[in-house]
Amino acid sequence: MQYRALGRRGDIQVSPIALGCWPFSGGEFWGRQEDADSIAAVHAALDAGINFFDTAENYPRSEEVLGKGLKGRRDEAVIATKVSARNLAPGDLVEACERSLRALQTDYIDLYQIHWPNWEVPLAETVGALDGLQAEGKVRAYGVCNFADRDLTEMVAAGQCVTDQLPYSLVWRSIERTVLPLCRENGIGVICYSPLAQGVLTGRYASADEVPEGLARTRHYSGQRRLAKHGEPGLEEELFAAVSKVREIASELGEPMAAVSLAWLRQQAGVTSLLVGARNAEEVGRNLPSLELTLSESILQRLDAETQAVKEAVGTNLDMWYAPTRMR
């Protein structure tokens, strides 16, 4: 496993794939999930050399289940969790951190992230609380999620932000316009969520109608779909045309489509780690081949070209679910 520095923090080394622990919550979007399967996924990840785990206080029971999975193996893991936008006032943030520490059964969090910006709370006050937690040793480093140009620039000026977690995949490339260059310029590592576009880049769906309702609510899909809230026409035709091309390239290489998609993303400059959800040990194993795959420059360029139409259709809005955007 080739580990990478967590942004500017060379003393915190993380695997290029992180286990995204939201599926541990089960519920409306993920369906029934057994804790034993989640814990087995944690153990399988550690055994494979994946040391990076991402969760959030806003994912019901996810922190608690992850804490159980890491019991006795905490020293092998780098834990990233998130504080919700509603808890960014200093007192609320400190209390939220304490709750997360208890749920995770640990006395420190490696990476504490602001989940979404809250434009009603001065960012300087939030950063002050984060600095305090860092000084106490309860947080090793802090970062942000879903911060676009304006908010990220303010965060860089206010504190020691080391990462920005954003949606990024072959079929969601809007961060390449301005945010990714800004991260590269300031030594901020990008943690990518939805790197397989919630399963589309695995090749399991032949059309938008096959995508489950809980997943077909992003701006990729028609705003007329039942759970969608963005109100846009979507880009279903462009999406599945691009997916077909990615499938062809993967077939030529003799590699799984998911491995090719993850390898392309892993090789983008500025990317630190990719969040891959796994609900059991078997699913963890499915993501490992991408770590052994390095794509040639010509293949990288072909993948870029074949997904340009989707990139243009997505536009400048980084928000996968809402229009107007919740990022600025």
Order of helices and strands: EEEHHEHEHEHEHEHEHHEHHH
Question: Please, what is the average pLDDT?
Answer: 96
Categorize the overall geometry: globular
**Residue share in β-strands:** 15-25%
Number of helices: 12
Rg over CA atoms, rounded to whole Å, is 19 Å
What is the secondary structure topology, with strand pairs?
Layout: E1 4-6, E2 9-14, E3 17-20, H1 27-30, H2 35-47, E4 52-54, H3 62-69, E5 78-83, H4 90-104, E6 109-114, H5 123-135, E7 139-145, H6 149-158, E8 161-167, H7 179-185, E9 189-193, H8 236-253, H9 257-266, E10 271-277, H10 281-286, H11 297-306, H12 308-314
Parallel strand pairs: 3-4, 3-10, 4-5, 5-6, 6-7, 7-8, 8-9, 9-10
Antiparallel strand pairs: 1-2
Overview of the molecule:
The chain is α/β, with parallel strands linked by helices. The protein has a domain of 221 residues: NADP-dependent oxidoreductase domain (TIM Barrel, Alpha-Beta Barrel). The protein has twelve helices and ten strands. Strands 3-4-5-6-7-8-9-10 form an eight-stranded parallel beta barrel, surrounded by five helices. The protein is globular.
